[in-house]
Amino acid sequence: MTKIWAANALLPDGWAEDVLITFDAGGMIASVETGAPAAGEQIALLLPAPANGHSHAFQRAMAGLTERRGPDPRDTFWTWRALMYRFLDRLTPDHVEAIAAFVQMEMLEAGYATNVEFHYLHHRPGGAPYDNIAEMAERIAAATATTGIGLTLLPVHYQFGGCDQRPLGPGQIRFGTDPDSFARLHAASTRALTPLPADTRIGVAPHSLRAVAREALPGLAALAPEGPFHMHLAEQVAEVDEVEAAWGLRPVEWVLEHMTPDARHTFIHCTQMLSHETEGLARSGAVAGLCPITESSLGDGIFDGVRWFGAGGAVSIGSDSNIRIALSEELRTLDYSQRLRDRSRAALATPERSTGRRLYEAVLTGGAASAGRPTGAIAPGCYADLMALDTTHVDLEGRRGDTLLDSYIFAGDDRMVRDVWSAGRHVVTGGRHVARDGIVAAYRATMRDLGDSL
Ligand code: ZN
User: Fold this and answer.
1) CA 315 to ligand 1 center in whole angstroms
2) Domain coordinates of the chain in residue numbers?
3) What tens digit of pLDDT does each residue of 347-361 get?
4) Angle between helices 179-192 and 135-147 (to 10 degrees)
5) Catalytic site residue 186?
6) Which end of the chain is more exposed for a tag (fewer CB within 10 A), N or C?
């Protein structure tokens, strides 16, 4: 048993002092006592560390390469996507492993304990499978063994180039599976995770309603009956229009009508919803997988957080394109988007909870559902996914309770994160990942290999 003692900690029923946490060798919290004498590792301020609910690891390496205008009259999500397809054609399994390790290290240093990896780069350039169909999943697993982050792997099924079931385009053929080959890939990906610790999870992810046959959805869900089910949904107007033209319903309307969404389901983005869709999906218990920095970067639009939270909806936070890994900035960006749209302030706060506290607790709970992992609270039965903030930071001077979280999110940044544990693995100390130097060296070599243009 390992002990951590915190002078202040955020527990499920609020802020507590002199908190002694005990967890077992598997990283599962066995007991939490308050008013306890100091013992074990001593921390000033301890928070549960949330899961990063949505990531495409390889995209980290193209951050900074897509900020120029191309020949199109407008630069949009779709022109960005064309560049992303061009970029990924260069990637080898060695590159993917180095990039994944780097981005997982950044996630840990930013305070995330878990990487929910929406994994769709499966095949060789040209689309032929590797000798091991799950080669790329094995590389994500190898990165995870290096970094010690908690992993929820979501192998992605991506069959078609659109609702009319057209074949995948040249940029998409490294993703392609049919239901049979996807079942083999999923089984091989499950085997690829066996060397990892017991907190590792596997789920399943149809890429989007555009990319899979509607009839295939129940069979996909059955491949990981205990795991989370994720799907991109209603990110872009053109995507909503395509689904509506093909099937007569908008994407969220279709999900509400033909699926039974609940907390097992995370729908990524949900930017383009009408008010009845927002309220209906929020009440279903499904999680909205929000990626505010990426949604800003890609010009997706503004998620209707006020209406979603008002209807009791659950949210998780994901770094998606990984253009920047910054937990506090994701939360700040989400709230600022509501303020800019509505010309209001503190739109998501309640009389009981400040903005920072409400957002942070929301992504703890929603992130646990998105990861399919017992986490999100400092409580027995949850993994010891923990983050210590640096209370000596000048922006936290004199702060207590909820104002600590507000100052961290709105005035501070991830440099306040001092220590992170994932399922009890103490992988960030003094703000640095314990294997940082080797991970950065491998990533630099990959970046030199890939060059700086698209
Ligand atoms: Zn995504």
Assistant:
1) 15
2) 2-47+379-439, 50-371
3) 899 999 999 999 999
4) 30
5) no
6) N
